[in-house]
Amino acid sequence: MDTIKLNSNWTMTHERSSQSIKTEVPSSVMNDLLNNGDIPDPFYRDNEDQALEIAARDYLYETVFKVEEAMLKEDSVRLTFEGIDTLSEITLNGSLIGTTDNMHRTYSFEVKDLLNQDENKLSIRLKSPLDYIYEKQKKLPLFGVSDAESGYPHLRKGHSMFGWDWGPRMPDLGIWRSVTLSSYSKGRIDDVYITQEHNDSVKLKLRIGMEKLSGSQFDVLVKITDPAGESQSVKKEDVEAISHVEAFIHSPQLWWPNGYGEQPLYTIEVTLLSEGQAVHQETLKTGLRTIRVRHEEDQWGKSFEFEVNGLSLFAMGANYIPEDNLLPRNSRDKTERLIKNCVEANYNMIRVWGGGIYPEKYFYELCDEHGLIVWQDFMFACSSYDLNEQFRDTVVQEVVDNVKRLRHHASLGIWCGNNEIEEAWEHWGDMSKDPIRKADYIKLFEYIIPELLKEHDPETFYWSSSPSSGGGFDEPRNPDRGDVHYWEVWHGLKPFTEYEKYHFRFCSEFGFQSFPSLKTVKTFTEPDDRNIFSYIMEKHQKNGAANGKILYYLSENFLYPKDFDSMIYASQLLQAEAIKYGVEHWRRNRGRCMGSLYWQLNDCWPVASWSSIDYYGRWKALHYFAKNFYAPVLLSVREEGNDVEIHVTNDSLKAVRAEVEWKLKTHTGNELRSGSLTHEVQQLTAEKCATLTLLGQLTEQQKQHTYLECTLIVNGVEVKTITHLFVKPKHFQFTEPAIKAAVNETSDAFEIELTSQSFAKFIELDLSDNDCVFSDNYFDLSPGKSVRVKAEKSRLRKEMTLDSLKEQLSIRSIYDMSEHGGSGQKSAKIQAGVR
Ligand code: BMA
């Protein structure tokens, strides 16, 4: 048994030039052209436009490789393509070995008879995905979103590569995953399926499939290594094509999602022996846990909650989209940074949205290691499909390939058929009403995929669509059953308070757009473009009505921003406030609602969007807010008539003694009233701890300069101070806070201590020529108090000295966002009085 990677030494030739470009797999046409200096940065200004022309042509990828004699002497040699994007003809040494039509699939071919010892030539002719979808769409129009090239549902290629309401129309093509050549003799393992039975110990049950080649007698050896490196082995002799092996793990170390425990992983090595000799080996890592989704009738409707190791937990996280339109630019390092950022914001779940691609192996390994439960959509979204024979066959293979690839991951929590298609049939006016397409929907998502899962992964819960109430077009938007995508705040222009009207069982999508930071905007604009309505800014705003929506919500909440950068800042604050409003509400209703996944975590290019982290990894205000609103113990306040309620939500595993100190203050720091309360909040519950009758005593005018400050002290430790305004921020009389910052350096961090003269809200720290994830940001500060923020050196993008940090640090608050008294103040940010 031997495997060689055929990823190096490729050339890519494009029609208009006879010249070939040297490249390596993973490779894509646009990435190769870019690296070769043949096209400008496709993300800059309106360079996106060149992509459709590029994708309208065919390309040739070629490599030449040698094979050792020993490999050719084996019984079988397989050439495997882990990902070809998408339409191709594959030729080896002049013989056509296969064609491909699905980027989500793995293709494997027996090639022993075609190989030579010296030189072998492998060619992949990639055909234009655009020609294909346009042609098909002419013959049979299928419904798809209008922000993508029409006809995209005909092809099994990541939908959003053709454009989306946050993505460019850039249907790049290439060899996006490894090409390998593997040889086998006697026999090989072709399937390992692990299930677990949990009692005091865990029984691991392995179903091992093998293919006989020339061997006549086979044994399997299973070695299980625990997280501490201790191993046990089980051997089964004289096995047939399918064998079953069982092993017991005593004192099992259970895998838990982030926030609930550790993520120990066990390594399982399966070796196939023929006549006593090891002939093939497969290694998998898994975690010991049970995950089920409870979807049961109760007093409110039908629940939707994740139960891990018997513990029902409130799911907290966001929706994940592809990380880059040019797929070869994805990397483990980038994904690792993103996943760690999720963990930092206290996520325990991430939803892989169905309009993109099935992520790389390392994505799931990182989720295993960091404790994020993966909600895995199959790659279908917002469209209708033609389930003809060819399409059905390729989809079946795609499902089987991906289920087998991912089912052993500890993090895999749910399979979901598609994104929003069931609700589209019921509620989207523009969805075609063709009954044949509807029948295809039922066949695929309510029959074929569940049947495949019964065979290949019956243990993981299947949900036919998101949102859904359980399938069969039975009120997919019902707020009391199953999961919901709630878009009335944002798409429906409803106020943030609208969230409180619903008690969804699980809110798997809701979102609010913002612009990425000025530093990110600068990467794709010229100075003259920096107006949100400019041609270029609108090119990087894919949701037609979105700028109007941002402006509408701005008019409802804030004073008009004084300049472009302030507009960006305002948009991020609106976004953060909106999502916080929703999440706090769902979490206050823990028990009835059991999950919140906001739309969306990340971006695939620099763009105005619903993301909390932009394409360059910069945290928007929302991501800092997420760290707070997803904190295990959450303090929140809400108004009810003239009352102000104080709530504590405890999603930790221990009861807490929560003390809340509250102060009614004026913007200049006068304390009008104060009080404190202590409340024992049980684990995994949400409680209203107090109702303060404050508002009846305040006149409308007083409300404009009075606010509530609450500090949460948990088991004696101060954890968080929050503030609450009684009027919209635009009507609050903020005065010049004259924020002062004192910066100190320690061996591993810079510490910034901030004080202000009057109440400062949404204080933002930034560096002009560097990036940092600060320990906190966009926080509030009362006069007479100080806040200490850490800039850990490891969180700076580039190294810097204390002096350069002082020079580059800019600080602003909501007061600086708008002009005051016609002062004509134009500077984008105030430079703090850095001492
Ligand atoms: C959701 C998603 C995406 C879309 C987003 C914003 O419903 O499923 O299709 O990008 O809305 O409109």
From TrEMBL:
Domain Glycoside hydrolase family 2 immunoglobulin-like beta-sandwich residues, every copy: 188-289
InterPro entries per UniProt: Beta-gal/glucu_dom_sf, Beta-mannosidase-like_N2, Beta-mannosidase_GH2, Beta-mannosidase_Ig, Galactose-bd-like_sf, GH, Ig-like_fold, Ig-like_GH2
Similarity comment: family membership: Belongs to the glycosyl hydrolase 2 family. Beta-mannosidase B subfamily.
Limits of the Beta-mannosidase-like galactose-binding domain: 10-177
Entry keyword Glycoprotein: yes
Protein name in UniProt: Beta-mannosidase B
Transmembrane region(s): none
Reaction catalysed by this enzyme: Hydrolysis of terminal, non-reducing beta-D-mannose residues in beta-D-mannosides
One annotated GO molecular function: hydrolase activity
